């Protein structure tokens, strides 16, 4: 299958409206996006497009997210990542409004793809006749350092390793088991509050790191039919019950830091260093996607090692994974160049094929 590019166009902000920005991006329906501005008139096609009026529930149901949860339970490696310019609505789409906490939960209607997926996952696990174990790990990549967002104490850099059996993996990362919606949402909020954010001219709460929350789904189903006249001992199980092979699936949510132009954000000092690090890793990701989009016979070496981000996403992009891409864009005329860049980025990704 191919990655499933989904587009979301956020509303114009109050600042953009007061400034007199024009809306240059319009949804045409049937997965089409039209960009109309001076010297630019183009239409792009995607799996689904959600305009400014789309609810969080509509995005969850229309993007294929529910099917991704079910595939993870069936043992597949599934990934959803949100990308786009800084301030385009990536974190809101994945998590919902900022400022959530255990004591101040968000309105149910505003919850993002992550919380809705958790609910779907736990409902599915209760309805299936399987012994399911769920655990979560939460990382951020900040200035090319991988840091654990769930480990107690100040975040410290963790080594990124490679092995023939596991591919790229993070050594010593914490994985926490959970059984309830409250527990996994608490882990999400706990980790998100430790993530690096800063304010600049385009976004008061700009994510300064890429964040990866991974849900590990392990199951082993056993048919409950002992042989006639036998109990549940080892002999009865082998004679009358078939043990299904265990399945290990993953559901990874990737909230990419937004691409940004230092001239537009007014960044300097540490903010400028962060922006350069973010843009370099996004450039490496775009380069890998461009190479993966070529036909298999013409594909050259894909440089996953160029950044920590591409190493951790290697399996999702070109390996055995199934990927949902959510591209978030601003409709403002002032953001036109970044919007076109995001549209072309997703168009290339649409041509990538994987073998899950």
From TrEMBL:
<dbReference type="GO" id="GO:0007052">
    <property type="term" value="P:mitotic spindle organization"/>
</dbReference>
<dbReference type="GO" id="GO:0051231">
    <property type="term" value="P:spindle elongation"/>
</dbReference>
<dbReference type="InterPro" id="IPR019821">
    <property type="entry name" value="Kinesin_motor_CS"/>
</dbReference>
<keyword id="KW-0547">Nucleotide-binding</keyword>
<dbReference type="GO" id="GO:0008017">
    <property type="term" value="F:microtubule binding"/>
</dbReference>
<keyword id="KW-0963">Cytoplasm</keyword>
<dbReference type="GO" id="GO:0005874">
    <property type="term" value="C:microtubule"/>
</dbReference>
<feature type="domain" description="Kinesin motor">
    <location>
        <begin position="2"/>
        <end position="352"/>
    </location>
</feature>
<keyword id="KW-0206">Cytoskeleton</keyword>
<keyword id="KW-0493">Microtubule</keyword>
<dbReference type="GO" id="GO:0005875">
    <property type="term" value="C:microtubule associated complex"/>
</dbReference>
<dbReference type="InterPro" id="IPR036961">
    <property type="entry name" value="Kinesin_motor_dom_sf"/>
</dbReference>
<dbReference type="InterPro" id="IPR001752">
    <property type="entry name" value="Kinesin_motor_dom"/>
</dbReference>
<comment type="similarity">
    <text>Belongs to the TRAFAC class myosin-kinesin ATPase superfamily. Kinesin family.</text>
</comment>
<dbReference type="InterPro" id="IPR027640">
    <property type="entry name" value="Kinesin-like_fam"/>
</dbReference>
<dbReference type="GO" id="GO:0007018">
    <property type="term" value="P:microtubule-based movement"/>
</dbReference>
<keyword id="KW-0505">Motor protein</keyword>
<dbReference type="InterPro" id="IPR027417">
    <property type="entry name" value="P-loop_NTPase"/>
</dbReference>
<dbReference type="GO" id="GO:0005524">
    <property type="term" value="F:ATP binding"/>
</dbReference>
<protein>
    <recommendedName>
        <fullName>Kinesin-like protein</fullName>
    </recommendedName>
</protein>
<dbReference type="Pfam" id="PF00225">
    <property type="entry name" value="Kinesin"/>
</dbReference>
<dbReference type="GO" id="GO:0003777">
    <property type="term" value="F:microtubule motor activity"/>
</dbReference>
<feature type="binding site">
    <location>
        <begin position="84"/>
        <end position="91"/>
    </location>
    <ligand>
        <name>ATP</name>
    </ligand>
</feature>
<keyword id="KW-0067">ATP-binding</keyword>
């Amino acid at each position: 299958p191919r990655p499933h590019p989904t587009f979301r166009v956020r509303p114009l902000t109050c600042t953009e409206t007061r400034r007199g920005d024009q809306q240059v991006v319009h949804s045409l329906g049937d997965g089409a996006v039209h960009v109309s501005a001076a010297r630019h008139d183009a239409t792009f096609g995607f799996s689904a497009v959600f305009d400014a009026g789309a609810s969080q529930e509509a995005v969850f149901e229309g993007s294929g997210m529910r099917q991704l949860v079910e595939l993870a339970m069936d043992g597949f490696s599934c990934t959803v990542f949100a990308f786009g310019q800084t301030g385009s609505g990536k974190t809101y789409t994945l998590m919902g409004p900022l400022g959530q906490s255990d004591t101040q939960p968000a309105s149910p209607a505003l919850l993002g793809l992550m919380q809705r997926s958790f609910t779907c996952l736990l409902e599915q696990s209760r309805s299936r006749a399987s012994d399911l174990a769920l655990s979560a790990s939460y990382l951020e990549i900040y200035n090319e350092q991988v840091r654990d967002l769930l480990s107690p104490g100040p975040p410290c850099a963790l080594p990124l390793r490679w092995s023939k059996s596991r591919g790229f993996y993070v050594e010593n990362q914490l994985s926490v088991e959970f059984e309830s919606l409250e527990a996994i949402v608490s882990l999400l909020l706990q980790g998100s509050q430790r993530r690096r954010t800063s304010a600049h001219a385009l976004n008061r709460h700009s994510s300064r790191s890429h964040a990866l929350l991974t849900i590990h789904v392990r199951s082993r189903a056993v048919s409950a039919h002992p042989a006639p006249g036998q109990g549940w001992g080892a002999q009865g199980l082998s004679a009358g019950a078939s043990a299904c092979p265990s399945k290990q699936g993953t559901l990874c949510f990737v909230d990419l830091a937004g691409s940004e132009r230092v001239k537009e954000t007014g960044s300097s000092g540490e903010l400028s260093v962060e922006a350069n690090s973010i843009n370099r890793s996004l450039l490496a990701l775009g380069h890998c996607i461009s190479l993966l989009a070529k036909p298999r016979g013409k594909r050259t070496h894909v440089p996953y090692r160029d950044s920590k981000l591409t190493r951790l996403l290697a399996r999702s992009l070109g390996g055995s994974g199934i990927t949902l891409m959510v591209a978030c864009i601003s409709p403002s005329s002032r953001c036109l160049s970044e919007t076109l860049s995001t549209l072309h980025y997703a168009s290339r990704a649409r041509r990538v094929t994987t073998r899950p």
